[in-house]
Write a structure and sequence with these properties.
CATH superfamily of the largest domain: Vaccinia Virus protein VP39
Shape: elongated
Strand order of the largest sheet: 6-7-5-4-1-2-3-8
Number of strands: 11
Bound molecules: S-adenosyl-L-homocysteine
Order of helices and strands: HHEHEHHEEHEHEEHEHHHHEEHHHE
CATH class of the largest domain: Alpha Beta
CATH architecture of the largest domain: 3-Layer(aba) Sandwich
Radius of gyration: 30 Å
Strand content: 15-25%
Helix content: 25-40%
Structural class: alpha/beta
Largest sheet: 8 strands, mixed
Length: 375
């Protein structure tokens, strides 16, 4: 809603990139710098910031809160994993949750966050909500870092069409002195330090008005002790969860197993194709390009008898063909970087593929039929 309004201004004042994007980029830069694992966006609206943040690989828990469920639901599907997330699961785990509720109320689901962002939120709060906000965010949630952005009223005369405020739902718009005084008092009360900055530079010659959006970055002075967390009164859950997505992650044993099995099958197929390509080029396809000597050199597909299979598998460090079976030693497959990286150790590799892939009788090689391309 705020975004639409400011889009109108961008045509005249020309913020490049648009102001809302500058605010989100500010948060993203902060995330890249401090690498928080758990981030909550209060007043998340259409979830655009959350959607941007889900790409930050340090984040494992992402939560959104808004008092308006409808606005959250409009675009929340963007927070679901994509097919690529299943095909190539990430190393980190990631859970994204959206809660319906107010920042004026405490809920235990909001505990344990490292970074809390309140982007263009406070100016939408009623006086009674704004009074409770510091205790909920700084007292109860008490994350290491809080970012609060709000319009700088001093910039408003430069925004054509803005008479009283930038948006009809804004309950107030503060000048820099008002925001700084509120922020300093809040920081002092809850033992935080605060630094002020902003986004949306004023035009040349009007530097006196400051940034279009003013930003306070609050950093908690003391680290949380176990005792301080435990001494919290138990709080009743009041928020409603409206969305949750758990991303596939290699930290999950089942997911790791799937990824390893897929990689082993893929690797084995490549080896098989290259082996069969060397052993038996299709005469009708290749005869015209192969020399006489190459055509003569066609190793026998039955070079190893069935009885000798076990013995040969045990001693062979190279893939080979026997009858209509291709044998690829596990050591060969494990030597491929991707398989190796996924599993770490050869023992883990064997453990992960056990029972999932057809192995030779002594368990030392993957068996693939020469006949089917898509085992
Ligand atoms: N952060 C977003 C949205 C800003 S508009 C952005 O940067 O674009 C403010 C949002 O705060 C709205 O979606 C509104 O529904 C929400 N909001 C207003 N009062 C709230 C409250 N008491 N608790 C939680 N969210 C609130």
């Amino acid at each position: 809603m705020d975004k639409e309004f400011q889009e109108q201004f961008t045509g005249i004042i020309k913020f490049t990139p648009p102001l809302y994007q500058q605010r989100y980029q500010f948060v993203k830069d902060l995330v890249e710098k401090h690498k928080p694992k758990k981030v909550a966006d209060l007043g998340c609206a259409d979830c655009t910031l959350l959607w941007m943040l889900k790409c930050c690989s340090c984040i494992e828990v992402l939560a959104g809160l808004d008092v308006c469920a409808t606005v959250m639901k409009e675009n929340m599907h963007r927070l679901s994993p994509l097919p690529g997330d299943y095909l190539q699961p990430a190393e980190r785990s990631l859970t994204v949750t959206l809660h319906h509720g107010s920042v004026a109320h405490k809920d235990p689901c909001m505990l344990g966050f490292d970074l809390v962002t309140c982007i263009e939120l406070i100016e939408h709060l009623e006086e009674s909500e704004l009074k409770k906000f510091p205790e909920v965010v700084f007292g109860f949630m008490a994350p290491s870092i809080v970012v609060i952005t709000t319009p700088n009223a001093e910039f408003n005369p430069l925004l054509p069409g803005v008479i009283l405020s930038r948006h009809p739902d804004h309950k107030f718009e503060w000048n820099r002195a008002q925001f700084e005084s509120w922020a300093l008092e809040t920081a002092r009360s809850y033992d935080y330090s605060v630094e002020f900055t902003g986004v949306g530079h004023p035009p040349t010659g009007r530097e006196d008005v400051g940034f279009c959006t003013q930003i306070g970055v609050f950093v908690r002075k003391c680290p949380h002790t176990i005792e301080s967390i435990q001494s919290e009164e138990p709080t009743e859950a009041v928020y409603q969860t409206v969305f949750q997505a758990v991303y596939p992650s290699l930290k999950d044993e089942k997911c790791l197993q799937n990824a390893v099995v897929n990689e082993v099958i893929f690797t084995a197929q490549i080896i098989k194709q290259s082996l069969l390509g060397h052993l038996m080029p299709e005469p009708e396809e290749y005869s015209d390009v192969l020399t006489e000597t190459e055509l003569e050199f066609q190793p026998s597909m039955d070079c190893v008898s069935e009885d000798l299979e076990t013995l040969v598998v045990e001693y062979s460090m190279e893939p080979f063909v026997s009858g209509n079976v291709v044998y690829i030693p596990l050591t060969t497959i494990f030597s491929f970087p991707k398989v190796n990286q996924l599993c770490g150790t050869f023992e883990k590799f064997c453990e992960l593929i056990a029972g999932k892939i057809t192995l030779s009788s002594d368990g030392s090689a993957v068996m693939l039929s020469t006949e089917y391309e898509n085992e």
